[in-house]
Amino acid sequence: LFAGPVTFLKGVTALEALPPPDRTEICFAGRSNVGKSSLINALTGRKGLARASGTPGRTQEINYFALGDRHYLVDLPGYGFAEAPKAVVERWQRLLRAYLAGRPSLRRAFVLIDARHGIKPVDAEILALLDRSAVAFQTVLTKADKIGPAARERVLEQVREALQRHPAACPELVVTSSERGEGIATLRAIIAHLD
Ligand code: GTP
Ligand code: MG
């Protein structure tokens, strides 16, 4: 699947502009700056495909990438703090939640959690929304290169424990570093198995 072409399709700012729900769709959600766009670049092996930056609130649209001819990878705006005007942030937060709760072709939501921080209240709120909407989700720890083994065990324990309370959660947790490539092959294989 990842050996084939991947192209940017469009950036969506309103539900009416979403493409027809006729492909297997996989999205990447998470707090601003957690590393969603970087992970898409690492997965596709295309550095500048999704725009990443150190400024929280970089991605402001629902960005669609066509992976081969049967899958979409979807880069979402972050939730939580963002360096953008309040009215704009509120608009994209509403769009993001409406998308997550009501996209029929959404096969799995990957919810990215910063390995240094674990699950924050705003993450828990999104996980609860996914439970209510019965959207299967899987948590992905990001920026694993920034922590040592002891901190990693602590956060893994916290996340595993929290996931038990979420009926829509896949039990398997993936630890990644877009910087070092850790977990990228595993995540590609998981996506390739979704149909
Ligand atoms: P928004 O679009 O603003 O919500 O952010 P995002 O979740 O798309 O994050 P983005 O991919 O833009 O990355 C944010 C910052 O984290 C950038 O400076 C990245 O270089 C950095 N970053 C992302 N992934 C990793 C990683 O695995 N390791 C390290 N060390 N830095 C990372
Ligand atoms: Mg982004």
From TrEMBL:
Subcellular location(s) per record: Cell inner membrane; Cell membrane
Function, in words: Necessary for normal cell division and for the maintenance of normal septation. Required for the insertion and/or proper folding and/or complex formation of integral membrane proteins into the membrane. Involved in integration of membrane proteins that insert both dependently and independently of the Sec translocase complex, as well as at least some lipoproteins. Aids folding of multispanning membrane proteins.
Domain of life: Bacteria
Domain EngB-type G: 22-195
Family per similarity comment: Belongs to the OXA1/ALB3/YidC family. Type 1 subfamily. Belongs to the TRAFAC class TrmE-Era-EngA-EngB-Septin-like GTPase superfamily. EngB GTPase family.
Name under which the protein is recorded: Multifunctional fusion protein
Subunit annotation: Interacts with the Sec translocase complex via SecD. Specifically interacts with transmembrane segments of nascent integral membrane proteins during membrane integration.
Gene: engB
